[in-house]
Structures are given as C-alpha cells and as structure tokens.
Specification:
Chain lengths: ~190, ~160
Amino acid sequence: MRGQRTRPSTLVGAWVGNGLVTNLGDFESIATTTVGSGGQATITFSSIPATYKHLQLRMISRGTGTAEFTIRVRLNGDTGSNYTNHFLEGDGTSAISGSNISGTYMNLYVQPKSSALANVFGGFVVDVLDYANTNKYKTVRHLGGYDANGSGYIDLDSGLWMNSSAITSIELTTGATSFAEYSSFALYGIKG
Amino acid sequence: MPATYEPISTQTIGTAIASVTFSSVPATYTDLILVFNGTSASTQGMELRFNGDTATNYSATRLRGDGASAASDRSSSLDVMEVGNVYTSQTVNVFQIMNYANTTTFKTVLCRSNNDSAQVSARVGLWRKTPEAITTIFLRPAGGANFSVGSVFTLYGIKAA
C-alpha cells in the first residue's frame, strides 16, 4: 500500500541546507552563473543586497586542473590574511580534520580534478550567516564533496572572515585552475 | 516575484511499507531537497534509486560519528545509492539532489543524516547513468525492512534565477 500523498502548505517550516526556513517564501534567488565552454577562472557575485538575513550558495563544480582543489572564497575583494577555516572530511577510508589559519582566502572542500571520472561534479551547499550585520565577523558553514565511484570526499567545513563589514561581493576561484564547463553557481537570500 | 522554494509533494506512511516513490518530478527546478523524518522496523541504511535504474550505477562516500569516534567508508558500483540511514528511533535525513534536471552531468546527492541514539553522518552519492534528468525517486530501507507508520517524506524544489 502506498503512503498518503498530499500537497503541503507553503506556510510551513522547511529544511534548507543545514538551517530552517520558517516560510518558504522567505527564500529568494539572487543570481546564477553557469560556466560555458572553455571554463571560467573566477565566479563573482557582486552588489549583493543587504535585505536578507542569510545567504546560501548552491553549486556543482569541477576543476580543469590535474589536482583536486578546494573552492576558494574571498569576500568584498579582501586579499588580506583574514580568513580561517576548519574542516572535517571523509575520504572513504578515514575521517580527517584540519584547519587553515589566517589565510588569504577561505577553503571549501573539495571538487573533482580534470582526470576524475568524466561527468562527475561536486555538490556544495554553503550558508553565509548574518552576512549584512556590521557588528560581528562573518561565519560560513558548508556541506560538500564528490563521489567518483571508488574515490571522493565528503566534507563539513566552517569558515570565518575576520571583518565586520556587510558582505556585498563573493568571489569564487579554484587555485591554479578554472571551473569546468557546466559548473553552476546559484546565490540565494533568506529573509529573517 | 515567482516562488523560489516550493513544496512538490509529501507522503505520510499510513501502513508500514517497503518503499516510497516520487514520480513525475517536474524539471522546472534547479535542485531538489528531500526530507525524511521517520523510523523503520529495524536499523538500516536508506537506499535511493533514480528513474528506475537498477544497473550498478550508484556509489557513495560517508563520514560518520557515533559518539565515540569518527570514521569514513564508501560503497561503489551498487544498484542502489546508500546515502542515508533509518533507525527504529526517530531519524532525519535531508537529501540535497543537486542540479537534478540537467542532461550534461552525472548527478550528485548530498545527505545529512541524524539519529539521536546512534550516529550523525554526512554523505555524498553519485548516480553515473548517462546524464538524464531525474524524474523518479525511489527510497527504501536496506535489508527488506519497512518504513514505519507516521514516517514522512517531503520533496521540495529550489529554482534559481
């Protein structure tokens, strides 16, 4: 016997990423970029309005280089040593934890390299919390990784930008390589 | 402004059942989020299939903590994606089915799974059938167990601009 199927109300709480949205209408699309042929070295979301409480980035990506790279995040164009992050990672064999302290970018782990199984793209859900608040440093949390049938990683990351400015731009790069064609990046705003 | 985040369908289990299927999933969203809140008759992994594909096109990597230690493992070339858990006590799985409607990439699924009496885990799963849009999602507990009465599955769509 099948379960009962109903269409739920939109006025209910719902899980998005790791957080709870109390009203589905409070989740809005801001901008999207999909990489074309030839790849793209940098993805930038600029002029982010301060009208939301939190931001969420939802991405699939793959690198064009020969090594696995993190996705590197810079906020408001800040190239100073103002970023810190910690990660908890599973590589299919063991659990690993580490950190990057006072870096010039924030790391999101980890996307497949060019030699990974074709058509495999990593998935990433990144929450940027209280991004417009000018009274605190900014905290980011992330769930992401990829599986390539016998290899891959799953990661939980936290990141800190040691700056209390409102975030108005997010720049994503991937080290010495580019994002591969079909990589896609979507930015959403969550109202408070 | 058009809705960005919408409920597609909810299934509440009225009689214990071995599997649940969401069919005719519209291709009009960018990502899907599938939330499970429920239990089963025995502690099992939760298995997914897409579009009725029973070939060995599924794999997954897991990170888990059981209150004493953290560990990681993986499954490869299976006929189901082992990407969640279900326990005899309340379990929550949140599946993020990324870019499910494109016809250019294999499909990646992220899952956070929580059970207060056993473990917390994060997983990433891969469906590597020749790229096609996901239109059907099949879920079951491993080992032939049933989903218990009162378990709830809700499928949401998120639409990018």
